[in-house]
Write a structure and sequence with these properties.
Blueprint (H helix, E strand, L loop, with lengths): L2 E5 L3 E3 L4 E8 L7 E7 L6 E6 L6 E3 L7 E6 L4 E6 L8 E8 L13 E2 L3 E6 L1
Parallel strand pairs: 2-11
Antiparallel strand pairs: 1-3, 3-8, 4-5, 4-9, 5-6, 7-8, 9-10, 9-11
Length: 124
Amino acid sequence: QGQLVESGGDSVQAGDSQRLSCAASGRTFNWYTMGWFRQAPGKEREFVAAISWSGGSTYYADSVKGRFTISRDNAKNTVYLQMNSLKPDDSAVYYCAAGRPGGSIRESSAYDYWGQGTQVTVSS
């Protein structure tokens, strides 16, 4: 049984940068597509970014493209989300997820494993 644990969430000012980490344990996720989703109060969970098992392909929501970068280190079983130029609209609980290749990477239903989430708060 695999587990994903996010860390790095914090309260920051608009324009700041922050890096989230997602550590996997219990099984190897090296062959999985890894994704980040977020959910703000009163809103549905939304896709943020995803990365293929090899790291060769990355995908982003339009709202974060050019500001966020997803990466992975399979040797460390860890996925990262580097967030730059943060905006108040980026405030949410951020979730890490793992899904088998071939699924619809922008859909939460394609992911089999989820972390518990980490809070990111951006103040103006």
